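Today's session is about reading a structure prediction critically. Students often jump straight to the picture, but the first step is always the sequence itself: look for stretches that repeat, for charged clusters, for runs of hydrophobic residues. Only then move on to the predicted structure, which in these notes is written as discrete structure tokens rather than atom positions. Here is the chain we will use throughout the hour.
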Amino acid sequence: MRLHLIRHGQTGSNVLAALDTAAPGAPLTEQGVRQARAVGAVLAQEPLDAVYASTLDRARATAAEVARPHGLDVQVREGLREIVAGDLEMRTDRGSVEQYLGTMVAWATGDLDARVPGGESGRATLERFDAVVAEILSSGARTVAAVSHGAMIRLWAITRAANLDPRTAGDRWLDNTGVVTLEHDGRGTWSAVRWQDEAVPHTSPAVGDGPGGEPLPV
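Below is the predicted structure for this chain, in token form.
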């Protein structure tokens, strides 16, 4: 089975670098709408069997553009929403963004009990996303697109793909409407095959091999 994890299009909160994780969240900007249409056009070439989205407006709007060429309805699931910012919600200062993303990196490297103040544990965050992926797997679909959020996709992919190194969690970039593509072997193992424009090798990369740059806010 092939799973495309898609980050939503640009929002005003992205432009402000705000930690916007609560429902319903900021809508897509004009640029975000163009991005959503563009990724929809690219995935129109794929034989998609289903399209999923988180409950947040930006994910649902992006998913609608992905689903439209295939005549599919968007299946909305709470478990696909962004990592909860808790007490840091809508903060824009560098310290808050670093604390939020630093918690994600801690989870990726094994400290699943860490949490953003007022937010979920890493264990609870991964479990809710895992539950949606398990549903997708059990559906029998062969190729599925799921529109989620930057930090959430990075966390899940890098902890669940056998060929990604969790120690690179802080280095892997994911732009608005960036796509991470994974394949499931039918025996319980996920492997990443592409991270945005980068083909992912079958074996785990060394630390630092991922694309660099400042991690993006949600």
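Discussion point for the tutorial: The first helix runs from residue 12 to 16.
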